[in-house]
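Appendix C: a fully annotated inverse folding record. The material below is reproduced so that readers can follow the format used throughout the book. The structure is listed first as tokens, followed by the designed sequence.
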């Protein structure tokens, strides 16, 4: 008789998040905060085509707004510019706002992230 793997429930949950499109632990944590805030689950890693015909991937898409999770790599100047260009194009094309959260903020200041997600959902979610 076999026994369940240690932390089976946690592993199953993480695998579900990954299967749902999360690409980092911070994105998984964002999903947990959205559930804690009782928001509808976001679409993960959805894409849009920018004005130059390039596919641009989004970390999370809620009804009415987008969310990007920025890790340390986003602090490099060219990565930062790429993020800005992509965000500007997306706002111009869709008219939807984009919330940005540093991965460290998701872990250290979850109450602020939850408050901002909730406020964005209240303001933009019923469009």
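Designed amino acids, in order:
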């Amino acid at each position: 008789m076999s026994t369940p793997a240690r932390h089976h429930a946690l592993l199953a949950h993480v695998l579900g998040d990954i299967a749902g499109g999360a690409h980092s632990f911070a994105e998984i944590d964002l999903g947990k905060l959205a559930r804690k805030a009782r928001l509808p689950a976001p679409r993960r890693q959805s894409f849009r085509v920018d004005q130059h015909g390039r596919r641009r991937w989004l970390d999370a898409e809620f009804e009415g707004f987008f969310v990007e999770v920025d890790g340390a790599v986003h602090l490099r100047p060219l990565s930062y510019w790429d993020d800005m260009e992509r965000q500007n194009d997306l706002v111009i094309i869709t008219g939807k706002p984009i919330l940005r959260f540093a991965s460290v903020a998701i872990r250290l200041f979850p109450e602020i992230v939850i408050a901002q997600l909730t406020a964005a959902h209240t303001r933009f979610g019923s469009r």
